C-alpha cells in the first residue's frame, strides 16, 4: 500500500471497515441497459475501494460471459477461466485469480460462445460453488453484461441488490429504463441502486436520477429504486484503463477515485434489509425461483 493510500484508508475507513466473518456475503450485481457506460470500471474500482479502504474481503465475478475483460483491466493473466470451471472440472478456488488489495477475481472467458447462454444446471454449479466460498467473502460483486439477455437477467435477479450504471446520454437513460422494467416484472420490489456515471457533479447525477425516477413513478409504481451516488467524468479513468490498473489504486486522489470511495461508503452504511438471513444461499434459491417463474410454475423472488 502506498503512503497516500494508507493515509486515505485511515482517514476514510470509519466505522464500516473490516471483514464481517459472522455475516453472509452481500451480493451486488453491476449492470446497465446500454454497453460502454462504465460497468467494468465501476466494478473494479468499487472492489478496490471496498477492499483497500474499508477492509472488506471482496470477490469479483466477471459475468460478462463470453466477452469479459475484467482480467485485462486488472492486468491479470489468468491460467484458467470460468470456462475451465464449467466445462473442464477445475475447482472454483483453482480458477480464482488474486488481484490488487487482496481482491479475488473469477475471470470470464473471452470469445467463448458456449458461455453466452448458460444452462440452468451451469448456473447452479456456479452458484453452489460460490456458496461454499461464503465464509471467506464479505462482498461478491458481479459485473454483468449490458442489456436484457437471459444471462444478464439471471445474475441481476440472483443478487441482493443491483447497481444500475447510467450516463447522461439519452440512450443510456432509455435503455436503463427498459432494463428496470424487465427486472421489475420478473422480481417486483428488487432493490435497484441508480449510479450516475460520467456526470459533471453530484447535481447533474441527481438530475439524471430525477429524470429516470419520475418516468418510473408514472409507469412502474412498485419499482424499488434509490440513488447510489455519482461518479464524475474523469479523463484519468481512460488513462488507468490504458495502464491496466484500477484508477482508485493508480491515482487515489483523482475525482473519480474519491467519488467511488464515497459510493462504497454509502453502500456499506446501508446494508440491504434482507442481509442477515440471506447471502449466497439465497442467490441460489432466487435462481431456481426465477426459472420457475419463467417456466410458469409458481411465483418467485
Ligand atoms: N467516469 C468516467 N470518466 C471517464 N471515462 C469513463 C468513466 N467511466 C467509464 N469511462 C470510460 O468508458 C469506457 C467504457 O467503460 P467500461 O467500464 O468498459 O464500460 P462497460 O463495462 O459498461 O462496457 C472506458 O473506455 C472507460 O475508460
Ligand atoms: Mg464491461
Query: How many distinct beta strands?
Result: 8
Number of helices: 13
Distance between the termini: 41 Å
User: In this structure, how is the largest beta sheet organized?
Assistant: 8 strands, mixed
| The CATH homology group name | P-loop containing nucleotide triphosphate hydrolases
CATH architecture: 3-Layer(aba) Sandwich
Q: What is the strand content? A: 15-25%
Hetero groups in this structure are: adenosine-5'-diphosphate, magnesium ion
Q: Point out poorly predicted stretches.
A: 296-301
- Rg measurement, Å: 18 Å
Total individual domains? 1
What is the percent of helical residues? 40-55%
Structural class: alpha/beta
CATH class division: Alpha Beta
Mean pLDDT: 86
Biggest sheet: strand arrangement: 3-4-2-5-1-6-7-8
Shape designation: globular
Write the H/E string, N to C: HEHEHHHEEHEHEHEHEHHHH
Question: Would you tell me which CATH topology applies?
Answer: Rossmann fold
Which structural traits does this protein have?
301 residues, alpha/beta, Rossmann fold, 13 helices, 16% strand, globular, binds adenosine-5'-diphosphate, binds magnesium ion
Amino acid at each position: 500500500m502506498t503512503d497516500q493510500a494508507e493515509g486515505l484508508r485511515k482517514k476514510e475507513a470509519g466505522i464500516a471497515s473490516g471483514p464481517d466473518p459472522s455475516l453472509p456475503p452481500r451480493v451486488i450485481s453491476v449492470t446497465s441497459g446500454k454497453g460502454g457506460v462504465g460497468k467494468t470500471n465501476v466494478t473494479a474500482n468499487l472492489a478496490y475501494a471496498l477492499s483497500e479502504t474499508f477492509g472488506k474481503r471482496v470477490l469479483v465475478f466477471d459475468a460478462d460471459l463470453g466477452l469479459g475483460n475484467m482480467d485485462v483491466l486488472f492486468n491479470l493473466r489468468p491460467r484458467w477461466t470460468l470456462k475451465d470451471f464449467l466445462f473442464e472440472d477445475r475447482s472454483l478456488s483453482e480458477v480464482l485469480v488474486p488481484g490488487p488489495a487482496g481482491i479475488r477475481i473469477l475471470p470470464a472467458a473471452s470469445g467463448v460462445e458456449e458461455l453466452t447462454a448458460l444452462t440452468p444446471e451451469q448456473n447452479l454449479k456456479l452458484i453452489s460453488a460460490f456458496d461454499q466460498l461464503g465464509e471467506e467473502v464479505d462482498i461478491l460483486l458481479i459485473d454483468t453484461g449490458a442489456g436484457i439477455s437471459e444471462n444478464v437477467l439471471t445474475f441481476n435477479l440472483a443478487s441482493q441488490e443491483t447497481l444500475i450504471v447510467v450516463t447522461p446520454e439519452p440512450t443510456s437513460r432509455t435503455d436503463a429504463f427498459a432494463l428496470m422494467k424487465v427486472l421489475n416484472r420478473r422480481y417486483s420490489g428488487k432493490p435497484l441502486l441508480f449510479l450516475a456515471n460520467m456526470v459533471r457533479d453530484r447535481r447533474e447525477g441527481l438530475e439524471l436520477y430525477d429524470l429516470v425516477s419520475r418516468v418510473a413513478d408514472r409507469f412502474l409504481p412498485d419499482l424499488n429504486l434509490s440513488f447510489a451516488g455519482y461518479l464524475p467524468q474523469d479523463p484519468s479513468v481512460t488513462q488507468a484503463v490504458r495502464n491496466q490498473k484500477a484508477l482508485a489504486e493508480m491515482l487515489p486522489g483523482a475525482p473519480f477515485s474519491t467519488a467511488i470511495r464515497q459510493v462504497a461508503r454509502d453502500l456499506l452504511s446501508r446494508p440491504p434489509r434482507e442481509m442477515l438471513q440471506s447471502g449466497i444461499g439465497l442467490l441460489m434459491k432466487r435462481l431456481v425461483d426465477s426459472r420457475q417463474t419463467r417456466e410458469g410454475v409458481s411465483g418467485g423472488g
